[in-house]
Design brief:
about 180 residues; alpha+beta; 8 helices; about 30% helix
């Protein structure tokens, strides 16, 4: 089975505000506080769609990272400051490796996400030369998230559908994620 993950990560927001953002967007979903810097949102619309949900983005007032990974197909992220998109990235691995980072905006991305990395190192991190480098350890889609200090259990194998399944099977799920209805 291939991994299909989609989640939203918000910088400097309380768990209550993260839950409120899902409700304000007219959706149900899951929210969790990851650490002092980040919270995770998994709204009903988080099903490996074609981009960030407009209702989440339009109601957002913080730094928002939208993460999508379809294991055999693509890795994408978008970063918003409030509802303004400041960076977007996509890679396609269906036939061969293709990187689409025309709106990466590395200087702004480093500044807004408070990354401790140079522009050239960030670009190198996000532009693997070949499939072997793409799937090297740590796997390509983990590298940016690791750099941000976002724990893998908040985005790897996480989508609304997966959360519904995990919630039924894993009693510890409720320690990490809160259901928002």
């Amino acid at each position: 089975m291939s991994e299909f993950s989609e989640s939203y990560h918000i910088k400097n927001i309380s768990l209550d505000d993260a839950k409120a953002l899902i409700k304000k967007s007219g959706q149900s979903g899951y929210a969790g506080k990851l650490n002092n810097d980040w919270a995770v949102l998994v709204p009903q619309s988080a099903e490996c769609g074609s981009g960030a949900d407009e209702t989440i983005v339009s109601n957002n007032e913080n730094i928002l990272l939208h993460y999508t990974f379809a294991e055999d197909h693509c890795f994408m992220f978008e970063v918003f400051n409030g509802n303004e998109k400041i960076s977007e990235y996509a890679s396609d691995i269906n036939e061969d490796l293709q990187i689409f980072s025309k709106n990466l905006n590395p200087a702004e991305l480093i500044k807004v996400l408070e990354l401790n990395i140079t522009e050239s190192d960030l670009i190198k991190l996000l532009t693997p030369a070949n499939m072997e480098e793409y799937f090297a350890d740590p796997q390509f889609n983990y590298r940016l998230m690791d750099l941000l200090g976002i724990p893998r259990e908040s985005y790897s194998w996480i989508s609304y559908h997966y959360c519904q399944l995990i919630e039924k099977e894993d009693p510890k799920f409720a320690d990490r994620f809160y259901k928002v209805e």
